[in-house]
Amino acid sequence: MSKTYSIVLLVDDSKEGRVFLRHCLEHDEEILYAILEASTGTEALQLCQQTLPDIILSDDRLPDLTGVEFLNQLNRRLECRAIPVILLAEQGDFAIAVQAMKLGAKDYLVKNGICAASLCQTVRHLVEQSRSQQQGASDHDRRLLQSQAALQENEERLRLALSAANQGLYDLNVQTGEAIVTPEYATMLGYDPREFQETNAKWIERLHPDDRERVSSIYRAYIRGDLLQYKVEFRQRTKNGDWKWILSLGKIVEWDAHGQPVRMLGTHTDISDRYAAEAALQQAKIDLESRVEQRTAELKQAKESAEAANRAKSTFLANMSHELRTPLNAILGFSQLLAQSPSMSAAQQEQLSIINRSGEHLLSLISDILEMSRVEAGQTKFEPNSFELPSFLDTLEQMFLPRTNRRRLQLICDRAPDLPHTIQTDEKKLRQILINLLGNAVKFTKQGKVTLRVKQQKVDGSNSPFPVPYLPASIPLTLLFEVEDTGVGIAANELESIFEPFVQSKQISESQAEGTGLGLAISRQFVNLLGGELTVTSNLGNGSCFRFAIPVGHEKTPPALAQPTKKRAIAIAPNCPPQRILIVEDNWANCKLLLSLLEPFGFELKTAVNGQEACALWQTWLPHLIWMDIRMPIMDGYEATKQIRAMAAKRDQAGGENAAEREGRKAQEVLHTKIIALTAGAFTEDRTKALAAGCDDFVCKPLHESELLEKIAEHLGIEYLYEELDGDEETLSHSQLVPISLMPATLQSMSAEWIMQLHQATAQLDSVTVLALIEQIPAERGALAHALREKVNNFDFEQILNVTQETLRLLSER
Questions:
Q1: Is it true that the peptide bond before 469 is cis, omega within 30 degrees of 0?
Q2: 209 cis-preceded (ω within 30 degrees of 0)
Q3: CB 347: neighbour CB atoms within 10 A?
Q4: CA–CA gap between residue 611 and residue 631 (Å, rounded)
Q5: Distance (Å, rounded) from C-alpha 68 to C-alpha 250?
Q6: pTM of the prediction?
Q7: 664, 679, 805, 660: which is closest to 743 by C-alpha?
Q8: Residue 656: what pLDDT?
Q9: Rounded (10°) angle between helices 427-443 and 752-763
Q10: Which conformational region is residue 498 in: left (phi greater than 0), alpha (psi within -120 to 50 degrees), or beta?
């Protein structure tokens, strides 16, 4: 069977769409199509002028024209009116379908529902129909009737869809204002479709007064061509007087010979439900915001109450720290002075030693309470450093051996053979954890042994809770620490409560219940900070085992160790000029202590009991250095320092003097009086506040002779004469007096790791570890070793702590 020949024009801006249609038509078994293609409506119209196609398949949304506009322009050409056109849409639009059918479109198909066979059949049918129309008027009339019937059927289907979608259509004569509407349009507004007559004027009259000007303005702008599309939402009054929200869409589809709009097609959609939902959502949002605002206010009030409580707690702790450390300063200071007296008997020396040990123990209890308050306030931070693990463990072992020997216990330090030599973590906190755990183990074990085990296992550094390694050459590891004893054990119902602050096990006898009950609480917090978790297993009467694992970094290359030496200070060097020192202290005992410590060295000394007296003395006496107590009546140390600095600045800037007067003033004045803050507080904020006020340095009580002398040497640049020590005996050799001043510049000759270890051991009042570290000082630095050893012998830990802290700060700023 031979095929007939027909021309088809495919109009689609999508190449894929045209390929799909071509593919469908090429499978037609009855007609052979000559296919023309166009990507825009303008191009299609130009092709129609050159060759009249038998049928046109066009997309309903082209880049330059809509399908309806394309049909409208096609109908303006007499020769093209008979060409059957099929509009193809991505999604069905009933309004467009109606417009297309009224303009002569033969069909309106949705693309995703197109079947090749069905499309071929439709195209073949329309082509044959078009050709038959040319055979006679009767056939033309018959086909016209069929088309009308089909159109009526399509319109009926459209009305059903519109009714389901709560949507109505309108056809507006723009020039007359008359409108033809579907029944759904009238029903939507509560009218009987048979009685409803729509006009532009009536539509405007039904608009809500608040919407009328806005909507009318949009309509006029669209008619003038100022807007590309007509889309507006408004409220319209229904027949019974209610207000209904309407979404109106419209499109001009016909113009007159002068280019003026004639016809406008569009839809009205009832969107009242959407507005009701939005109103409900808005109300819910308002209610939620109200609840959030109320809750925020409650949280703010709770936060303010908590902050007030914290401030009160901090104030209380600061006051208690000051009140406790102030008498401790006198107790420890005078006991040290008495211990230096050659007339003291052995029994008296032992009693003074007891006084010192008791005072230091009280100081450690105060430090525990303050440390716990810092932990609870979130002020404790993870501060990693690099240190030698074997030396660290050796020091711990040496520290506890005397205790275990006195109690006839066996102390075992079980170290895995593959432990790294140098690791990076927070050494100070790790040391405090192990000291607390080992101290408890020794205290609560009457017989048997205490064991410290340390193992290591490699882990993936990417899973560590904080960055590992800390140094470029380090390797991530996990170290497991266990402290096990054969002591009294802990009951099962106490295994969690013992980690609470101020809680001690009920198995502890009254004679054993010393301390604050903060050790385990601080240890658990510190372990968490280091990236691990502290756990315990115990059998009542058979001992306990505390364990934790923490991630660390380690280096393969260990640092070299140094060798020890020894030496001691006795007086100011002869070449140093007299120095005026003002002591500002309201506590009589502490003032007397400072005078007793400094008078033997030949300093010119004066005292003041408050900041106001200090300011007056500074103006008349001009001291080289001021020891400024912070807490005093009338005027505190902060305000006194500020006023002295202001007076000094004013005098430096004073004018109107002649040259001789200026030279005389310069000869008498100290260019910069050094001010060192003295405080019994223990918070870092005190140091920051003192330095901000103008102090040159900051020292915590209790004070020691060596600390005072070293601070004076550091800030005034004076030198002392030191005696040389032979072995463990402190014998004075006047022929070998060596001047030295313990200050950051002196300590910087040692490694940063060594300084950090010395700082942490000093902070824990760990004299065994401090002495072990002093033994590592090279022989050529014997004066430094002697100076440090003297401070330990004089219980001068605060001086070592401040010097090492300042040295580490200077090293970190390089």
A1: yes
A2: no
A3: 8
A4: 9
A5: 13
A6: 0.39
A7: 805
A8: 41
A9: 40
A10: alpha
